[in-house]
């Protein structure tokens, strides 16, 4: 109760569904959402019970950040850009994390854990337990991404799609619920800081392939994302060049 808030701008909060202020249909999910980079700025807001929560989550966040930075370098290089290009566009960088709890649902056909959406950030590193639930849209069909022990799922988010000028696609995904097993998933959202200016990489633009998106700050994008209540699957349409 101490941490509960329906205000998406809060940097540490417990909430339910997606954004209960704006949505018409609720989702079968509770979540704790934490900002976790720079750690020292946020750790004192995190729950202190159980006692080891802060220490363990901080250690996890530091390690996962290392992985995110490696992936971002590899993505830069794969686009033919300098390996530090994307990292250099992210202002002071940011990292958020959700601890999603999907309780068993008596009528799973009537709702979702999370309906179809793309993640607004750069890349998402998802740790999931052994209960299936994640699905991705591939060639017009929803495909289950069943858990493989000791692996992460890496999802491309909207900001990589923008910077790569559509060479990478932000993956449409959703979480379904089931009637007998609870499910826990822990996504890390690696992000630009709110002041970072995001735009398609100029080196990738040609006369034949002009910028698909206009320039915006990540803060502007973040606000649009949270206020639409997942009523549309993606916010990218709102930031097209023309
Ligand atoms: C998310 C998300 C998927 C899952 O939190 O953005 O897509 O499997 N989670 O819980
Ligand atoms: Ni997601």
TrEMBL record:
Record's keyword terms, sorted: Iron, Metal-binding, Oxidoreductase
Domain of life: Eukaryota
Domain Fe2OG dioxygenase, chain residue ranges per copy: 93-192
One Pfam family cited in the UniProt record for this chain: 2OG-FeII_Oxy
Sample GO molecular function, one term: metal ion binding
Keyword Oxidoreductase among UniProt keywords: yes
Keyword Iron: yes
Family, as annotated: Belongs to the iron/ascorbate-dependent oxidoreductase family.
Protein name per Swiss-Prot or TrEMBL: Fe2OG dioxygenase domain-containing protein
């Amino acid at each position: 109760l101490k941490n509960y808030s329906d205000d998406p701008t809060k940097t540490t909060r417990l909430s339910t569904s997606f954004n209960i202020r704006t949505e018409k249909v609720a989702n079968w999910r509770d979540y704790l959402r934490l900002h976790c980079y720079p750690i020292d700025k946020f750790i004192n807001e995190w729950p202190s019970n159980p006692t080891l929560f802060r220490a363990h989550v901080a250690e996890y966040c530091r390690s996962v950040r290392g992985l995110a930075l490696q992936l971002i370098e590899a993505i830069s290089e794969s686009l033919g850009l300098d390996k530090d290009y994307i990292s250099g566009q992210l202002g002071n960088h940011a990292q958020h994390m959700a601890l999603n709890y999907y309780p068993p649902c008596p009528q799973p056909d009537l709702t979702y854990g999370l309906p179809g959406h793309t993640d607004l950030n750069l890349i998402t590193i998802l740790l999931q337990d052994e209960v299936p639930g994640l699905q991705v849209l591939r060639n017009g069909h929803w495909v289950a991404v069943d858990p493989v022990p000791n692996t992460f799922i890496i999802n491309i988010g909207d900001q990589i799609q923008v910077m790569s000028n559509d060479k990478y696609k932000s993956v449409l995904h959703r979480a379904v619920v089931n009637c007998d097993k609870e499910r826990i998933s822990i996504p890390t959202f690696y992000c630009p800081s709110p002041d970072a200016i995001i735009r398609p990489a100029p080196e990738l633009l040609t006369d034949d392939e002009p910028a698909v998106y206009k320039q915006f700050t990540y803060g502007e994008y973040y606000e649009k994302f949270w206020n639409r209540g997942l009523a549309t699957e993606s916010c990218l349409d709102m930031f097209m060049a023309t």
